[in-house]
């Protein structure tokens, strides 16, 4: 492990790392420039999402508000192949989960899935990249408990009144992977929360013991 760190440090001397948020070159071994450290204040909160059908509250830990440099960072990560950002997001989320949630109560980590077509076109599911790394850091198994069975319009393109209907019935849970488990569900951005709520509903209806969520950023905030 020490040798690996030395190799990575040497590589960063040759290929300097860039700030996760503003893309400026930063010193080897760092992820954020000093300007962004001062400018970006984490929300680091747990919000409540209410499942429309059952009224059950689902906790969701979120790191940042989805604005300015944070928004730019996630867009580059999600659409422009900056997959290495997942390590930083997972580090920060794992720390938040450890501080604000009972991490020892979780049995398995999973991610909000994207359709096979979208994953093929993009090359990866950004939420899965983060979820797999969080699973490693929390010493938990990662399982693909959910599948998106059909494509649908992206949530951010729709008015709020259409978003709940847009995600209804598009996810399927694997009972063999979810039943009896306390599931930590990972996504990249929380807007209205309808996507996470629908995924949580499907997991619970297929036997999951409990579902908690975590995401990099939020558009709307309803704290617990």
Detailed description of the structure:
41% of the residues lie in helices and 19% in strands. The chain is built from nine helices and seven strands. It has helices at residues 2-14, 34-39, 68-79, 85-100, 116-122, 126-138, 160-167, 175-178, 194-205; strands spanning 45-50, 57-65, 108-111, 146-148, 171-173, 182-190, 210-218. GO terms for molecular function: transferase activity. Keywords: Transferase. Belongs to the ComF/GntX family. This is Phosphoribosyl transferase domain protein.
What are its keywords?
224 residues, alpha/beta, Rossmann fold, 2 domains, 5-stranded mixed sheet, two-stranded antiparallel sheet, 9 helices, 19% strand, PRTase-like, PRTase_dom, transferase activity
Please state the second-level CATH architecture of the largest domain: 3-Layer(aba) Sandwich
Summing up helix and strand content along with how strands pair, one would put the structural category as alpha/beta
Tell the overall outline. Answer: globular
CATH class type of the largest domain: Alpha Beta
